[in-house]
Design brief:
By secondary structure, the protein is mostly helical. Helix content is 78%, strand content 0%. The protein has two domains: 269 residues, no CATH class; 100 residues.
Length: 385
């Protein structure tokens, strides 16, 4: 009998347990989700290798939709086939959707958001440490030679300069091909020169009778099939459709929804759950949630069988290598932006440093315990103020 847990079959129950836990504890947005996924499925369980994880991350970046959720769905299919695809994605989404739905209920009933400042004060520094650990580990696998290191630096520079995620990834793919050509020429011995908050309850009452679940579902399916990038890109699509074109929501309601999606664990795209509830109660929340996530399942189902073929092709594999290092460059820039808002005083800096030391010293440490402890400390700090 093999001692490697990755060699044993993975049941649907195994995946349900892991991804329900991640969906409940994965604070911090896509970069943090990717870090926690890497720890759970590569480091602790050995379900896939580091290289396979990177390839699935690169593939997830190339299709529309929530990147970290699509990465979860890819891993589910890899370990459990088509049932695994459904179980993994659903279990990752469900906890966040339920939490956001409950917050939406309070928002519609009382006209304001529940306070979560204390919890996030403690959690955010741990998230920064988690992402740094993942970037370090993934980078050691992704950056296979000096040319890919150069590609990573160029992608980092493009992202810092303000380039959108998709052009950065495309540039990474081109640079990956250039890296392959450079390495091939070096091996051949050739020289190469490279160079005002409204009353939400009354708005809900006005909207509920006018907008049904089916129109809500169709709008969110379209958005889910078109959005590349982060929750901030999602905000632009939601504003264009729901505020400007259809007039279903106010600007403040939209901003409140995005805030809830950011501060709850799991996918930021559960912003849709909040908006659906505001528009049509529970049925609207279900319609919006299913609508925005269905494209992710479809795109992964279509693209997943192609990944081994891409890796087997020398040209396509080199492109994927470039996309992988560009993905890590994007993660690095996101980490910097998150750190600027998370590390606000000496306490949060100390929490981040301590978390990083623990994670690097004990690579198999379960990050959920760190998050729970830091969140509790943050909440207690706000209670005693």
């Amino acid at each position: 009998m093999s001692s490697n847990p990755g060699d044993r079959p993975t049941t649907s129950w195994d995946m349900a347990v892991v991804f329900l836990k991640l969906g409940t504890t994965a604070f911090g947005g896509p970069a943090a989700h990717i870090a926690m996924l890497q720890q759970e499925v590569v480091e602790r369980r050995g379900w896939i290798s580091q290289d396979e994880f990177l390839d699935h991350l690169g593939a997830s970046n190339l299709i529309p939709g929530p990147t970290s959720t699509e990465l979860v769905i890819h891993i589910g299919r890899k370990r459990g086939g088509w049932p695994g695809l459904v179980v993994a994605g659903t279990c990752f989404i469900l906890p966040a959707a339920v939490m956001v739905g409950m917050i939406a209920w309070a928002y519609v009933r009382y006209g304001k958001l529940p306070a979560v400042s204390g919890l996030l004060y403690g959690v955010k520094p741990v998230v920064i440490a988690l992402i740094l650990q993942a970037i370090w580990k993934l980078g050691r696998s992704a950056i296979k030679n000096a040319w890919l290191a150069v590609a990573a630096l160029i992608a980092l520079g493009l992202s810092v300069a303000g380039a959108a995620p998709l052009p950065v990834l495309m540039a990474g793919g081109v640079l990956g091909l250039a890296a392959m050509a450079a390495v091939s020429r070096e091996r051949a011995g050739l020289a190469l020169w490279a160079g005002t908050r409204p009353n939400s309850a009354s708005l809900f009452a006005a909207s509920a009778g006018a907008i049904g679940p089916w129109p809500i579902f169709l709008v969110f399916v379209k958005i889910g099939a078109m959005v590349f990038g982060s929750g901030y890109v999602l905000l632009a699509f939601l504003r264009a459709d729901l505020v400007e074109r259809l007039g279903w929501l106010s600007q403040q309601q939209l901003l409140d929804a995005v805030a809830v999606g950011q501060v709850t664990p799991g996918p930021v795209f559960t912003t849709a759950t909040f908006l659906g509830y505001v528009l049509h109660g529970t049925s609207g929340a279900v319609a919006a949630t299913v609508g925005i996530f269905v494209p992710a399942f479809v795109f992964v189902a279509i693209s997943a069988p192609l990944i081994p073929k891409i890796r087997a092709s020398r040209l396509a594999g080199a492109t994927l290598d470039g996309i992988n290092v560009a993905s890590l460059a994007l993660m690095a820039v996101v980490t910097w932006e998150l750190a600027r808002s998370a590390l606000v005083d000496w306490t949060t800096v100390a929490l981040a440093i301590l978390s990083a030391l623990l994670l690097f010293r004990f690579p198999r440490l379960n990050s959920a315990w760190l998050i729970a402890a830091a969140g509790t400390l943050g909440a207690l700090r706000y209670m005693v103020k």
